[in-house]
Amino acid sequence: MEEKDRKTSDKEARMKERFQRKSSYTSIRYLRRMKELSGAPEEMTRFFDILDKVYTKMERLDIPEDIPMVGTYCVMAPQELVYAAGAQPVKLCSGSYTAFSVGDDKVPRDACPLVKAVEGFQSTDTMPLYRDCRLMVVPITCDCKKKIAGMLSGERELVVLHVPVKKEDEDIEQYVEELYLFMEKLEDLTGKRISYDSLAGAIRMTGQAAYELSRFLSLKKQMPYLMRGTHSMAMMNAAAYMNAGIWADQVRGVNDALEKRVRLKKPFTKRQLPRVMITGSPIIFPNIKIPLLIEEMGGVVAADETCMGERGMSDPVVPTDESFDGLVRALAVRAIRPCSCPTFADNKQRIYRIRQMIRDYQIEGLVYHVLRGCLVYDFEYKQIEEDLGRLGIPVIRLETDYNEEDIEQLRIRIEAFIEMIKLQKGPAQHRV
Ligand code: SF4
Ligand code: SF4
Q1: CB-ligand 1 contact for 190 (6 Å cutoff)
Q2: What is the tally of structural domains in the chain?
Q3: CB of 341 closer than 6 A to ligand 1?
Q4: Would 175 disulfide with which of 118, 203, 332, 417, CB 3.0-4.6 Å?
């Protein structure tokens, strides 16, 4: 090797090492803070371990060599098709501060941090999870997703899914066509044909995961509190890197532990903490600072209407026609119709969903999370603030980036918000 080449490769190796060290450091600190919060049942350990493996140790997932990994960039790409083709889906949207700081220099300043983090991982080639994906699928939902597809094309095998902006029958038809094209790519990748049986089996497996999640959510609604929202977010984030069947088994363990708490009358706290709901741009590990701050400041994240959280997996696939086409159509319907992502033109549905969750989870305040540059979510803020204002529910808009520069400011604002909720209810109700 020539001297110049050797110096370049030494420099690259040092750069990767520095990247991995910084990235691990962030992840260690956020994992530690999550574990330090009271109330996580022991059964949560597996979920923390997965996040630790991916973000701290930066190790490869334990997936057999003969099962190719398919990376997805939105919940609107049905994971059932990936399973049915004999592959393993992983979600690649990331909250990495280190990858963001690299991507920040390469992507326009006003782009969202998620797209910057993708660019950071792409250009440093440091994350085994990204390297191991043999195919990536990007549903085109906003300008940033379009640019993610542009950045990845040429580097990897890529599928782009054109997501309709409306939810009429013809829009569903259009998405069904997209899914058939996606299936062809998956079959080329694995060499296996997606059959009725393999697809029905995959739908059954994710249905089991949705069932355990619905059981979990009804336990989480209970008062006194059985589980913290930050821990629930860790569980939901870990699902991005786990087989759906294994994830469902682990959640069943958590549910059983929570039911035991009910039987023994041992909630994690008997205090009536202010009940906060989070909505807005996705909250992805390790960028978990907002739910952590809410709970560290004395609130409880009682509900979560974000796509990397409880919203992402709670709608089951419901086939109405028992043909192969009926199954594919049911996947398209589930991806589009109940989705309250503001990338759709008319999104009244999101307001109904938020109102309903406020009622079901007895929410006392709403945190509206906006990732800087995420226009689609920011656009809907005013409407939601006005609507909830009529119901007397306080709302706070928190705009953040993938770094810690705003931590103190966030802490002060969140603390004041929690105090305001307490005052509205009267001090007696929040006494220990
Ligand atoms: S915010 Fe919307 S477009 Fe982005 S990943 Fe979530 S569901 Fe997909
Ligand atoms: S929906 Fe928002 S957070 Fe997601 S890629 Fe688009 S701009 Fe970024």
Answers
A1: no
A2: 1
A3: yes
A4: 332
Instruction: Using the Cα atoms of residue 336, residue 324, residue 309 and residue 67 in order, give the sign of their dihedral.
Output: negative
Residue 212: phi and psi, rounded to 5, are -65, -35
State in Å: Cα 341 to ligand 1 middle. Answer: 6
Q: Whats the size of the chain, residue-wise?
A: 432
> What pTM value is reported for the model?
0.94
CA distances to 39, 48, 109, 164, 168 from 35, in Å: 9, 8, 34, 40, 44
CB 367 within 8 A of CB 214: no
User: What ligand is nearest to the CA atom of residue 110?
Assistant: 2
In a domain, residue 338? The reply is yes
Q: Which domain holds residue 285?
A: 15-430
Assigned token pair, 208: 């089991």
Cα(114) to centroid of ligand 2, in Å? 7
Is pLDDT above 50 for 431? no
pLDDT per residue over 375-407, tens digit each? 999 999 999 999 999 999 999 999 999 999 999
Give a yes or no: residue 82 inside a domain: yes
For the Cβ of 74 lying below 6 angstroms from any atom of ligand 1, the answer is yes
